[in-house]
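Lecture 7 notes: from sequence to structure.
We start with the chain below.
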Amino acid sequence: MILLFNGMQGSLSMVYDREMGSMRVLLTSPLPRGFLLASKLLATALISLLQVYAFLAIAWVYGVQPPPLGLLTALPALLLVALLLSALGLLLSNGIRQLENFAGVMNFVIFPMFFLSSALYPLWKMREASEWLYWVCAVNPFTHAVELVRYGLYQRLEPTAMAVCVGLTVLFSLLAVASFNPQHAALRRSA
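Predicted structure tokens for the same chain:
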């Protein structure tokens, strides 16, 4: 959940940077646009990882204790999921011109992704409750992200979740770079 919120919050800052014009200034550097956006995604992901491990340390104190080695083996899964959710947030932010609009869109993305995933109940339990709910949860990218991290904490690899997360991270990242338009805020001001 921390990764999901931070991925969207990082994109919220991108909308703000674009609206204030600081992103256009940054894009005047000789670095390629894709590199700058990938750096933004990586920075958001690393900040998310720090917060996740702070949360896991607090949870450890309260008795939620995954295997100690699992905290290390989950690191690649957490990084991949953080990149996936940051890329999704950046892709969504590319189509939104105002900061206020993106804050509303975040709620329509975050809550359905979270509640229609296996974050609270395993998929087999969803299938017992409702077949259509199971399929909605099964196609939700956040379900695969949760499963990848869950298995990683217990030193196992879930190949389907890994493939879905890698594929969607690459897809969302490429689409976010291709659809990025730093001129959105400038076009709105001139109109």
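Points to note: The chain has one domain: 2-190. The CA atoms of residues 84 and 169 lie 4 Å apart.
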